[in-house]
Amino acid sequence: MQCSPGICPRPSAGGLVAVAGVQQVAVLGSTGSIGVSTLDVIARHPQQFRAWALAANRSVDTPAAQCREFQPRYAVMMDPDAADTLRAVLAGECDTEVLAGPEGLQQVASHAEVDAVMAAIVGAAGLPSTLAAAEAGKRLLLANKESLVMAGHLLMAAARKAGAVILPIDSEHNAIFQCLPAAQSGAPGLEGVSKILLTASGGPFRSWSADAIAAATPAQACAHPNWSMGRKISVDSATLMNKGLELIEACWLFDVAPSRVEIVVHPESIVHSLVQYVDGSVLAQLGNPDMRTPIAYGLGWPQRIDAGVAPLDLVALSRLHFEAPDETRFPCLRLAREAAAAGGTAMAVCNAANEIAVEAFLAGGIGFAAIPRVIEATLSAVPSVEPTSLGVVEAADRDARDVAAWHVARSGGRPNPGGEK
Ligand code: NDP
Ligand code: MG
């Protein structure tokens, strides 16, 4: 699909309509790794995009600086005290209206003036606003994979009903989106596709022994060899739970069974994922490991826009490697697969237990090897039910958090309720 500069097709309940001029973007999680990269891309294209709303949890200095630079219509702070502070800091400096709490978040995610929502809040906290954006038929730039893992059925159904286009921002899913054939609607289809090959860097412990992995510290777990990311996803990459969550994410996004998704470890993180076709062709998307590429793709789609990313130098790279994942040293991958096979709320339970275990690990409460143990014990204790509504999913999430916290305490530590960045 071709569009003139500044005019992009936008989904609405009534189909595709042309929208001229600047696209208004709500950046949820603006202070995080994805949020900052999103603002970097937006700043490169002031004629095409405006950061219309920003949202964060409780950090104030970064949102204040972002408000001064981008002059958004709204800034939302999840924490009401942080909202008060931000309001005071910005008084007389810019006209940004500061909102607080989940209502503020939902308001900007579904506001009539918003064209696109970057869902980049970390963890289950991102689900209500992501769902609100889908229900409002927005162009949904989906980084918050936890929403799909927890409530994939609800989120995909809401997007379909409201005509929201979901553009995957997770680099692997963005790559798959780019390599799949376009269906009639312009959305990715599956015609002629035999398999999806989801690449994984293997994380910082790819070549470590099981004993060394068990003794890993938070600093070591967060030192990803290729990507600079928030602390939670960095630990998920180290346990390979990230790849397990991404397997589930791929199944919802592209409507495929887990058996059609193969995970391939590729330590260089240059091939972001691949699609294999029945005729033996394999299409891949390559690029330097810089999240501004999938972010720019999501913002500009179906056009291509400059992302500020250095061009790929294949000669300098010279070699790319591929190997099978090791589910013995990295049991989280198996646990995510089992949760996907169990279906229902098992995936929400897996996600919640993982969030509690990772938070405890980052706070120094449990060791690295206890993360999969806490998740496995929680999955065995909390029964899976049909995720018929957001309430059912949230109840499963709460139950799993309670059970996981109990197992964390039993492992010799206590989770840090405030978490840690
Ligand atoms: P960060 O930890 O860097 O940033 C998290 C953002 O979420 C911050 O803006 C934070 O605000 C905000 N936040 C945290 N808790 C809440 C809450 N309860 N309510 C509202 N806002 C909240 O995370 P990343 O940017 O690394 O990741 C964001 C999402 O994108 C995750 O779901 C991750 O899996 C996904 N993703 C990230 C990738 C990456 O390269 N980083 C790659 C692919 C996917 P504050 O600063 O105030 O705490
Ligand atoms: Mg990814």
Uncertain ranges: 1-19, 414-421
Instruction: Compute the number of strand runs.
Output: 13
Element-by-element helix/strand order: EEEHEHEHEHEHEHEHEHHHHEEEHHHHHH
What structural category do the secondary elements indicate?
alpha/beta
Mean pLDDT: 93
Helix content: 40-55%
Instruction: Report the principal-axis shape.
Output: globular
Could you give the distance between the termini? 41 Å
Ligands bound here? NADPH dihydro-nicotinamide-adenine-dinucleotide phosphate, magnesium ion
Q: Largest sheet, order of strands side by side?
A: 6-5-4-3-7-8-9
Number of helices: 17
Radius of gyration: 21 Å
Report the biggest beta sheet as strand number plus sense, adding barrel if it closes: 7 strands, parallel
